[in-house]
Amino acid sequence: MDVFFIPQGSMSYGAVPQRSPYGNNDPAFTESATGFINPKGQAIPPKKRGLSPWIKFGIPVALVVIVAAVVGGVLGSRKSSSSSSESNSDKATGDEVASNAPVATATNVLAAGRFATATDSKYMVPIYPSATNTALFAAPTIAAGASTWPRDSFAPANPSPLEVRPDRPRLIAPKYKWDALPELIRNDPYLQGWNETIFKNASDYRALQPITYLMDGPSGILDNAREFKMRIKAFGYAYQITKNTGWVDRAWEEIQHVISPQFGPDDETKWNPTHFLDAAEFSAGFGIAYDWFYDVWSDDQKATIRAGVIRYGLNHGTAVYAGTADFGWWRTNITGNWNCVCNGGLTLASLAILGDDTTGVASGLLGQTVDNAKANCARAVTSDGSWAESPNYWYFGTTGHAEMASALLTATGSHFGLLDVNPDYFRTGVFHMYVSGPTSLFDYGDHGPPKFSTTANSMLLYGDQLNHPEFILHQREQHDAAEPWSMFWYNPAVNGAFWNGLPLDHFFDQELVQWASMRSSWTDDDALYVAIKAGRNRGHQTHNDLDVGDFVFDALGTRWAGELGSGDYRSPQYFNSELQDAERWKYYRKATVGQNTICVANGNQNVESRPSVEHDSSGTAQGSSTVLNIPDDSTAFWTTDMTSAYFEASSVKRGARLLNKRRQFLLQDEITAEGAVQWRMHTNATIAIDTAGTSATLTLDGQTLKVSILNAPSGAQFSTVQPVRPAGMPEPLVPDQENPGVTVLAISLPAGTYNLQVLFNPQWPGMSDSDFVTPSSVPLDNWSLRSHD
């Protein structure tokens, strides 16, 4: 399809005030500009990077191209050694700034800089210096009297979703925040770095052609919608900061394109409402465009935007709430990302045009979406904070939820309970912190589509609104922090270090997920990290795997045991059912054989599993230093009886334990099975197995991991197998995806009773063989904090 271009030059704009010293000559529109607004006046080139194989698995090629656009961390190369004492001068810093201003708090002066000195270019996680600074790395607080946002003068006594602030913009970033932002940027290194990245991204998007219509099977045009929204946010931000109307022109080109006859069907289904996420995200983008460029749109342009968003988005939302649409399933008892994104998009668009809309569509929807989201979207968080779908779908759900809550707050003066109707909602910030390992997420289940306009910046809003400064401090270091929402959700008065006082272990016991997070440090990117789960095999909005007992393992700056992630969403019946015979479970990445767990008779686990868990921790917490000296008695363990997940086994139990000051990891399985047993672990490592078969040496990223079978039962030996369905498993309707670069380390045994104890020994620098311990053999039911001393 030819790209539809909109002729320029027909628009006229009145005089607009300027906030930026660049005025209408901002560097993003000069021939040689990178798009960064660098306080020192010099262009900062973007950095190149590679991607972890685990990040690549299951992700469309489009994401590999676009993911670099939302990088806001301090970019640098992956460390070439495991030393954590590398000097800052050895790291490339893509948006690092410096100043001689005196230090008052950790964030309101440039002299303090940013805590993370670089971003790991493989896994895109922050790298922290080896340092102790009790002044900067204090306990998390929001400092009273520190430089922050002025108070909003709009404070209605009786807020209503139908009564909005009188000034513009009204969505997420009111005028008083835009007015205050330049000074905050000058005095805060995080805002400064994000601002630079946003301008670079806006310049990159500006150079692209308008979005090409792409119907991607069951995922519809969701990537189109989210990329449109991402571009509009960036263009709107650049315009509001510089008042350069070139950004308005570029946004108008994009807007006209996605409502033109050349973009998809030339009828009411243009935004694909049958996959309502698409229409919702387009609606959100149109709402942002209408509101953030409101002062320069002509009356005709406003009418065009209103007509487009009503015809292609909001009218379909009205049909959903009237019960006349067959694609409104997401509004009833759907506690997941669909409800959050759909209600959020409808709400942003309706708030944006409210007062100008003469059809009544906007006010009608606002009478529905808020209460519906409170009853559904806000309930996606379990009582202990886990997101019901998967750790990656947390991003989509919380983004929709946060956008909706923030827009309501700024436009009407209240979130109407959306942030606190679920008293446990704040715990999802805890979930996100603990599901994030030294290399990447414990990313069980589906990973979802590309995160064009989706980040973890909900943590900034939740931290500020729900008084959890540790959420803000954690997220501000992440590579995805740099996008327009962060500029307004971030509270510059935050102070301290997220890790100060934060326990190394956390256990999530709500039966839907049931999982554990155990680590040796929050700030050492070489840290040991074990995350392992039990939970139910149903009830996750068809985004889970059959994966009771699944685990990931990080050490020495790399992921040794990882997740394969999403299957191909276009595969037949991929989302149709969670029942035992569902087609979904025939696809390798969703089947039990595709997980790091025990397989019995090459079969899938029982979807009606009800495992139980036990656990304990020594309670070790990190202090103010980024360097943590682990006490001799520091340990943690987690066990599960997962017998209910198996059909041909009378007993299956699994336990994970940290040993030797959290430098070793023991995985123990106790199994009595009537079918053949296989222990499986997916890895990117190269594997060498010794002649006895009870020890394997794994090498990856220049690091080494030794894995041993302790007290090996007769016949227990390591082998390597390919990540494909074993012979005899039911064939899926279409061939499985390939899993390049992945090998399965396995232990295969006939039916019987076994105690498999697998010890993981990362080869830490400076540790000799005598420094490693060989633990005693202790039955799982007898595990305690001191059982392996």
TrEMBL record:
InterPro entries the UniProt entry points to: Chondroitin_lyas, Hepar_II_III_C
Comp. bias intervals (Low complexity): 76-87
Pfam families assigned: Hepar_II_III_C
Location in or out of the cell: Cell envelope
Domain Heparinase II/III-like C-terminal: 520-703
GO MF term list: lyase activity
Region annotation (Disordered) ranges: 76-99, 605-627
Listed SUPFAM superfamilies: Chondroitin AC/alginate lyase (SSF48230)
Biased composition (Polar residues): 618-627
Protein name, as recorded: Heparinase II/III-like C-terminal domain-containing protein
Provenance organism: Candolleomyces aberdarensis
